[in-house]
Design goal:
CATH topology of one domain in chain A: Arc Repressor Mutant, subunit A
Mean pLDDT of chain A: 88
Largest interface: A-B, 47 and 47 residues
Strand content of chain A: 5-15%
Number of strands of chain A: 3
Oligomer: homodimer
CATH superfamily of one domain in chain A: Winged helix-like DNA-binding domain superfamily/Winged helix DNA-binding domain
Structural class of chain A: mainly alpha
Order of helices and strands of chain A: HHEHHEEHHH
Distance between the termini of chain A: 26 Å
Helix content of chain A: 55-70%
Low-confidence stretches of chain A: none
CATH architecture of one domain in chain A: Orthogonal Bundle
Shape of chain A: elongated
DNA sequence: TATTGTTATACTCTATAACTATA
DNA sequence: TATAGTTATAGAGTATAACAATA
């Protein structure tokens, strides 16, 4: 059902969320660029640093077509940050995984994302818990995530 | 200064913010696609629906190179959603503005962005005020915005 | 001289469709 | 036959550099 809330307070909060999103996204791109990575390359590298993943699965997580992953992994592989491994149980499948160097780059990238962490540090534990519960509710209200 | 907060609660909140950003971004792109617009085109149209803007200023707001705006406005103009007007005070400047049709598209686009508004409706006014203040603090803590 | 918008170029990301090698 | 990954293609967004018109 369409929820009708057009009071000034709600409108302001919606706009603020849009601002936070734009800000977060911009800073993520800039952090990636400092490592000579595009935003998408950084996202894939971060994914593979957490867990080696079949090509198709990467596409699902990024919500894009599988054919696009080929090129993205190609470019990461050409820089020695990622490698393709065979799947011992299905010879059609290729599992992309971060190399040692890729793991290091992913870690430095993660640590440089201070935008969210810094202002959060100004909050009390109580406020942080409140924010956490609020965000959970926002995320739980709609479509399912792709884990 | 680098703020060191790596306790589980802060880490979880940072991850949740990342999730909200990803979710917001995805839904924005989908809403734009329903009007046969790319995300960037939708952003520019939304900007021009609020206020006619010189080409260079659009680039500043989007934080990209001015040369890119030419093509984006070209495509919006080809569809009759935007038009270029001369600046009476400086003949070098072209002011991009939404047409009547563009205003309508921008309005429908705005109204279809329910992701943020719906879960927000579940909160009390008190909670909404708390969230607003929190988001303001987050946005105020870092680099200056481009108004 | 400096600035505005544009053009030209190269690269990346994207979806679509067709291909290959496996299953 | 169905699926995983790839290739080929076309469109869009991006940065860089060079250009014409105007300030």
């Amino acid at each position: 059902m369409a929820t009708e809330r057009t009071d000034p307070l709600t409108v302001e909060v919606v706009e603020l969320i849009g601002d936070v999103v734009a800000r977060y996204y911009t800073e993520y791109e800039q952090a990636a660029a400092k490592h000579s990575l595009t935003g998408v390359q950084a996202r894939v590298l971060g994914l593979l640093a957490t867990e080696p993943t079949p090509m198709r699965r990467i596409a699902q997580k990024l919500r894009c077509e599988p054919s696009n992953i080929t090129g993205i992994v190609d470019r990461l592989e050409a820089r020695g940050l990622v490698e393709r491994r065979p799947d011992p149980y299905d010879r059609r499948v290729k599992i992309a995984a971060a190399t040692e160097e890729g793991m290091g780059t992913a870690r430095r990238l993660r640590e440089s994302l201070d935008f969210a962490r810094e202002p959060l540090a100004q909050l009390t534990d109580e406020e942080r818990r409140g924010l956490r519960d609020l965000l959970r509710r926002m995320l739980g209200a709609g479509a399912p995530a792709v884990p």
